[in-house]
Task: structure prediction
Amino acid sequence: MAALPTRRPAPASPSTGRDGGGPLRLGLSVSLGLVLLSSAAGLVLCLRYVGLSRATLPALAGWSLILCLVGVIAVRLAPSPGRALAAALAAGLLARILAFAFVLEGRPIGGDPTIYTGMARHFISSGELVHFDEHHRQYQWAFFPPAYPVLIGLFQLVFGFNSCSIFILHLAIDAFIIASIFHLGVRLQGPEAAALASTVYALWPTLIWLAGFPQKETLSIALVCLNAASLLAPSRPARLGWRRAMAFGGSWGALALTQPALALFPPLLGLVLLRRQPLRATVAFGLRAGVILLLVMGPWWARNHAVLDRFVPLTTSAGWALWVGNNPGATGEWMPPPPDLVGLPEAEMSDRAASKALRWIAENPSEFLVRTARKVILGLGSDRHSFGAIRDFRDIPGEWIFATLATPLQMYHLAVVLLAFCAVMDGRRVPAELCVISFLSVLYIVLVEGWFEFSERHTYFARPFLALLAASFLAGRFGRSAHPV
Result:
């Protein structure tokens, strides 16, 4: 990190200049406006259904003081990028350690975390990646993506099968994310904005709690950051050779095998390259990355064909997720299967579920649009998914902790989105590449992810870019240089 530039880098070429207006800025303003309104509605709902406890305001004041203190320190250290990054890392990792040690360590956690840890143990003991689902009464061979359970299985094989080893793995992944955000911030906006962006992400409360849960979202965020960094890392336009293609295609394949719903997101990031490279070079780079993608995905395809006797490109859960998001009682959250889907083989179950969902959409187009809009608004606006599991812990006052901190968590989310919106609306300019990625992230959530089973955890991959946008506003207004970024 000591080698990172300490001065704000100048635009490398006209194609990498700043975006001062036009359709891109308008689209990002509208999309962030939607997120902002959703977040404000989320705060209203939080106050209505959760309310305030006596400890809420002191907790909010204390957290705000910590955040401001760390932010000021990080900005003061910005001329020494290694020290600024160390400050953000120390604050973020310490917060995660304290949350894990005093609340999450050793607590039983249900749902997907239990499934992933069970699959990991079974994979290490038998070499098979399979899960028996009691609700569907079926063995699921390709229902859950393989990358995350394989990763935690291999990691626990070395460090032990316990919650502490998974937490250590997530700490390492979080450290990579924070460093990636800092690295991208330096390249795009300068050291002050980079220090603030990594701090905003490192101290995002729900992401602190997420480190203690065996869920794939942490790994998904890291892979999205790696994917973006492989495109934006060079400060000047560089040759799109095989090394960068391996980074992009490899992280693309790993992301598809971690969170299949994001499989189409990396190709969209190719639009960023068009600001730096001619079309021919971009297409050639995409073909190289595609070769790497095939090498990464090939073993999964071969295994699925051997086990299920059919080609499964990503997962057999797509049809099921489509039904969960589109049926007469759909809310976007998981729901038990209808009787006619219970006991079927996983591939047949997914096909029938998809048929039921598509038939319902065709018969109820207006209700489909309303339900999808509701899912997206709630998903973009609320910020309590990972933290909400604490309410179910029996041997600690989980309900009191949730009632105390739910509102501050929602206010933090709203504040980051508000700062990101102000950055785009402000006269100070935001890097065009960051505008493109942020706009594509929100657009992807609305137009792709909103069709399926959907909650706020499916929006976590966009948070590094929201942090970078928010930091660009803070650095421009309150940084020591305080000049346009």
User: Anything to note?
Assistant: The first helix runs from residue 22 to 49. The CA atoms of residues 327 and 360 lie 6 Å apart. Residues 1-20 have pLDDT under 50 and may be disordered. The first strand starts at residue 18 and ends at 19.
